[in-house]
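Model the whole thing, not chain by chain.
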Amino acid sequence: MHPIIKTIEERQTTNLFDPTRTISDEAIHELVRLGTKAPSSFNLQNWRFIAVRTPEAKSRLRKIGWDQPKITEAAVTFVVVGQLADHQLIAERLRPAVESELMPQSVATAWEGAGKALYFEQPQRQRDEAIRSATFGASTLMFAAEAMGLSSAPMIGFEAEAVSEEFELAADEFPVMLLSVGFAKPENWRQKPRREPAQILDLI
Amino acid sequence: MHPIIKTIEERQTTNLFDPTRTISDEAIHELVRLGTKAPSSFNLQNWRFIAVRTPEAKSRLRKIGWDQPKITEAAVTFVVVGQLADHQLIAERLRPAVESELMPQSVATAWEGAGKALYFEQPQRQRDEAIRSATFGASTLMFAAEAMGLSSAPMIGFEAEAVSEEFELAADEFPVMLLSVGFAKPENWRQKPRREPAQILDLI
């Protein structure tokens, strides 16, 4: 079986982490470097990651994270931050692609216009895009974690406004999820069953 | 290099697909089966996939998809549909896990309560969750596609209301993205550069 397929088939949202095992800051950097290879709209990369890995910082997060033990027991819990999509950043985010002659300037300019058409004065779309981008980033980071022998748990149980305040998110940012990463204990649940494709797939 | 890392490093959003190559309905089923191994909040699986793969259906989608050629040139373009998070579905979605003794009934009941606390009469959170779940599903489907030798392109350039109408989405559904999957032509762009982790990562 292809290792990607094997990971997809066997991955589970880990509930119990080994609290005695940590991961290095270098490994955290690598997780985020790989996570941000994910796609984002117009390559906006409208995400940010706060790696909460000291006992003191984890404790602050757990208090506003429904007191979930995995926040403190995992080696690191990321606050995965989404940034409201801002078309004015597209030129800057595409500049390295243009300068390396990977993308013509004309395409970058066209993308800037398309981004303005989508997002300018469209707060719901700006927020939607922040969630999409941050979730693509988190998902890719989770795959990277599996490849590095680590397990993960995305979480939505937290007080969003308290997290924004406690971790000083900017006005155009909000927490899209928490994501614990670390070493799974052996006694975790297996992957929960899913509905069959026939229930959720239409072919036309 | 681990095959997952290699895929993350090399994957690109494919712009040019070989329009002469199709994929079987069985392969489309398998892509969706694997994609829906993705995590979702309380295992709600609040997603649906419309596989647009006939020339006629692709043409209808392209007209309301900014006329993007990849919609018709890829073997299949999925309308990745998000469903507003509804806590009343949690019991049903967890039942197979309870019946297989993977999860105690008490946990399933507690999750139902937590889901109600999060989503009941909270339309913004219901929508946010639809985007998160559908994006996790799309991302996992994209990894499965890579493992199967296919390439992909998520797209946000489409008229959302027209897509909902044309493909008869339910009142609690909306299109989260389009996702083309097929065989890449050799002359595609490489992956576009990303910002460095130092620009987007805080360690605390």
